[in-house]
Amino acid sequence: MATTDAERPGFLLPLLLLAGFRALIDDLHAELARQGHTELRPLHGFVLQAVGPDGTTAGELGQRLGVSKQAAGKTVDRLVALGYLERADDPRDARRKLVRMTDRGYDGLRRSAVVFDQLRQRWVATLGAERVAAIEDDLRAVTPANWFRLDVPGWFGA
């Protein structure tokens, strides 16, 4: 039996999208833990992406994430202690410290990409390839061109 529009209140759409996101992220982190990355948390993925291959400063990292320099620094401290990031002198400016990914950080990102592909395949197995592609196409049609933003941590915390 089909669901009518009256049975689909507006508030349900963002909750279902969030639930889908949460299911993917929870499954990702469960698999990363099985693969030896037990300490990685959802926020850490945003941080590692924001650090990027060239590194950054804590202040720039805070701007990219939409959080204060202090909040970024605290997260960096945690990821340094866990071995995912390191601090190093900036070769272009001796007054600055760069935050860079370690091999462990790169490994976490590489494994995440593989696991996300596997999770997408699970959705394909459940919904079918055409439906998953249609969901992706439809979401692209209703989201802005710059949909991948790293400031989600700050946006959620605001």
UniProtKB/TrEMBL annotation:
<dbReference type="InterPro" id="IPR036390">
    <property type="entry name" value="WH_DNA-bd_sf"/>
</dbReference>
<dbReference type="GO" id="GO:0006950">
    <property type="term" value="P:response to stress"/>
</dbReference>
<dbReference type="InterPro" id="IPR000835">
    <property type="entry name" value="HTH_MarR-typ"/>
</dbReference>
<protein>
    <submittedName>
        <fullName>MarR family protein</fullName>
    </submittedName>
</protein>
<dbReference type="InterPro" id="IPR036388">
    <property type="entry name" value="WH-like_DNA-bd_sf"/>
</dbReference>
<dbReference type="GO" id="GO:0003700">
    <property type="term" value="F:DNA-binding transcription factor activity"/>
</dbReference>
<feature type="domain" description="HTH marR-type">
    <location>
        <begin position="10"/>
        <end position="144"/>
    </location>
</feature>
<dbReference type="Pfam" id="PF12802">
    <property type="entry name" value="MarR_2"/>
</dbReference>
<dbReference type="InterPro" id="IPR039422">
    <property type="entry name" value="MarR/SlyA-like"/>
</dbReference>
